[in-house]
Amino acid sequence: MTTSTLPKSRQQLILAVLMVCSLLIWLDNTVLSTTLETLADPVRGLNASPAELQWATGSYTLAFATLMFTAGALGDRFGHRAVLATGLVVFAASSVWAAYAGDAGQLIAARAAMGVGSALIMPANLAILIWTFTGPARSTAIAISSTSAGVGMAVGPVLAGVLLDHFWWGSVFLVNVPVVVVALIGIALLVPNFRSPVARPLDPAGMLLSVTGLAALAYGLIRAGQVAAWGRTDVWAPIVVGLLLLAVFVRVELRSRAPSFDPRLLAQRAFGGGNAALGLLLFAVSAVTFYNAFYLQGARGYSPIEAGLAGLPTALGAIFGAPVGARLVHRWSLRLVAVPALIVAALTMGAYGLFGPATPLVWIEVVLLVQGLSIGMVLGPVTAALISTLPLERAGAGSAVTNTVRQTGSVIGIAVGGTIMSIAYRRAIEPSLDGVPGPVREQARVSAEQARHVATTSHLPALGHAADDAFVHAMHVGAVWIMFVALFGAAVLLLALCAVRKPAGDGGPTADETAPRAGAEDLTAREGAGVGTR
Q1: If 0-12 CB within 10 Å is exposed, 13-18 middle and 19+ buried, where does residue 525 land?
Q2: CA distances from 355 to 233, 296, 300, 317 (A)
Q3: Angle at CA 131, nearest 5°, toward 126 and 137?
Q4: What CA–CA distance (Å, rounded) separates 198 from 178?
């Protein structure tokens, strides 16, 4: 394959630009969780309902999940620098739209547009990195670039807290604009337009089916939380339609000669089972993160900056967990490290069932730290090891499948987790609404945030306390479900890794025996990479 021969100093500057682009995505992924409680506030935010907040989070992930594999083909056709710059412009413009959204509906649409920008940024970013560096320098560059994820996870919530304490909620989105400007200047001055001489098909049918299928499925799941019933036509019909569309999507991709999303890879026990486990883990992580945002700022009454600082142990744990996991895998095996780590992650999520309004903060911080460490010990090593089980020529397709499955798990996790919380909250708050005036009662049923607000304006302090208790009960119910989902993921991962065996006569390592090789990390970044420049 053809590689670039850029001077070392220019390679390092390009890496810095790419890290800024990656940091942008991770910052945005984390700042919103700190902003959810404010967006739900009728005075300081948009008076958003739980369903609207689910969509504000899920619309971004939905667009990201379903358009990412198409973006790689666009890079092959038009050049990865052009696609990266386009993604940044879309991201910045939609960030401004989100910052000045007049209602929750506009915010949801703006978040979806931000997801489109992220989907264009990610594959192009990885492809440019692969073709900028060669040999051992490539593995080093990938390792350095991956630190932007940890920095974004750590800085995002704290930055959002500072902005929310001093400015209005839209400032958390406006902060993206100067970052994009810096990245665009760097791209224009430094980055060649790497592209493939053989353009891949864009697969519009697959893109349309995946978007509509996931959107319909998410709509039905979220709608169930709004109406607190699963038997209504507007709940089960979208779910059925979504599943049928996704089945058609799989069939279309199976019949395609060059599918953007290759379902055949999931038929391999190790690769398919491992990705299913990661999808279940991301399902659980997204749901428990959604709960945590409302627990810290709502039931605990923390300010945004206090909530951001309280969440730091999770990010720091994830940062240190990945290298610790890699070292342990070198000593033992991936199965003996990743499966117990996923079980521990599941138990920490179930520990939310023990949290209450007066739980000592130190215990919460310990749980969050252990949770971050265990998640970090699973995600990085397992992802790289699974990609390493594929032939070199299938690595790009494998990366597309892995990224799509993980983002899909996040979409469904937000939808299901939020719906469980809404249904459990409504049932718990109902006994406390006897004798409460009709308009107040209806508003209190929507969410704990609405109940606290109306309790303050109506001078009903007992209703505010009841809302806190009802939310904590709902969080406990959700935590149990989330824990079982993550434990099921651990069981799936165990079965998947049992399928990985060292070939007879091969003295080399396998995914079940050692840590992910540096070359395996290279493979994860090949999605959409071209073989030339212009």
Answers
A1: buried
A2: 36, 11, 10, 20
A3: 90
A4: 35
Residue 300 CA to residue 472 CA, distance in Å, equals: 10
- List the beta bridge partners of residue 195: 532
Which pLDDT tens digit goes with each residue over 52-107? 888 888 888 888 877 877 777 787 778 888 989 999 999 999 999 999 998 989 99
Structure confidence at residue 197 (pLDDT)? 63
User: Per residue in 432-441, pLDDT tens?
Assistant: 888 777 778 8
Residue 446 is encoded by which pair of tokens? Answer: 């929507």
The one-letter amino acid at 222: I
Give the per-residue pLDDT at 263: 77
**Three-state secondary structure along 128-161?**
HHHHHCCHHHHHHHHHHHHHHHHHHHHHHHHHHH
Give the tokens for residue 109.
């649409």
| Residues 485, 285: Cα–Cα separation, whole Å | 10
Give the side-chain half-sphere CA count within 13 A for 163: 21
The closest alpha carbon to 84, from 14, 7, 136, belongs to: 14
Q: How far is CA 450 from CA 293, 295, 467, in A?
A: 16, 14, 9
Is 228 exposed, middle or buried, given 0-12, 13-18 or 19+ CB atoms closer than 10 A? middle
Q: What is the pLDDT of residues 202-237, one digit of tens each?
A: 777 877 888 888 888 888 888 777 776 677 888 889
pLDDT at site 432? 84
Q: Which residues contact 275 (CB under 8 A, 6 or more apart)?
A: 266, 386, 401, 402, 405, 406
- For 428-488, the DSSP string reads HHGGGGTTS-HHHHHHHHH-HHHHHHHHHHTT-HHHHHHHHHHHHHHHHHHHHHHHHHHHH
- DSSP, collapsed to helix, strand or coil, labels residue 195 as strand
The pTM assigned to this predicted structure is 0.79
